[in-house]
Amino acid sequence: MFHLEFNGKQWAAVSTSTVGPQHEELICTNPRESISVCLAWTQDGQSPFISMLELLPLPDGMYANMSSDTSWRTLYRYMYGATDSILGYLQDKYNRGWQPRNESDFGVMSLTADFTLIISTSVDYPPDPALLHAIMVPSAEFEFPLYFQDVYFYTVRPQYRNCTSFGIQFIDDPAVYLIPNKSDLPPIINSIEVYDSGYIHGYRATSQDDVDGSKAIIDGFEQLQQWSGACLPLSSSWQWLTCSEFYPTPNVTSMNLSGYGLQGHLPDFSQMRALKTM
């Protein structure tokens, strides 16, 4: 197991013993022109690895119920009723990955729409193909109250060839119930997206001057170019740096470059004003 870190904060724990691919996704605003993504050991001898890193710009109003002043880690995004292994759709303007779910073990039935075009969609713009499959309870009804954690939330009245979507905020694990009411047709659900809000909030980073100065030293010596990172998180900072813990911007206070066999001239790192010992 190793950790993913984003902008100096722990993002996710990755277990390489898990069967199949692992995908981590984070939606957040970034106050700087660059980001930092690090793969960090949790113990000696590990070999963290990454196969792909994708960055996409997203509009502020991407989701009606998601504020841009916090971060959102994707917990899961299911597409019900589908049986293939599609990870994404060309029609999805946000390039989201959808995991097919077929809940046949729970007594539900899969169904496919008798049309291929959605007339009206939601502000979240789910891809049309994800809305053409669904699951239903065979003996249930079509107009149904939606309960969330045993609390009545809304009565759903889906319209033909229209996307009906709802956003719910919760504190504990979600449990959504589709309760039939006054109809001969069963309740259906096409897809669901669940996010953890505030997982990485704000941006705490090493002083940019110290980052630039440290990078100049690294670039000047081949022996140091294996390092990537800086002061944060403190548990995985560069081994040859000592950093202050001042909030919100840590500074490099000392460097220990002994034992690396460095030779030659030191580059200019005069911008590192908090550095006291080398």
From TrEMBL:
Pfam families for the chain: Malectin_like (PF12819)
Domain Malectin-like residues, every copy: 2-144
Keyword Signal in record: yes
Official protein name in the record: Malectin-like domain-containing protein
Membrane topology type: Single-pass membrane protein
Major location (coarse): membrane
Organism: Punica granatum
Source organism, top-level taxon: Eukaryota
Record has Transmembrane as a keyword: yes
A single Gene Ontology CC term: membrane
Subcellular locations according to the entry: Membrane
Coiled-coil positions: none
InterPro entries, per the entry: Malectin-like_Carb-bd_dom (IPR024788)
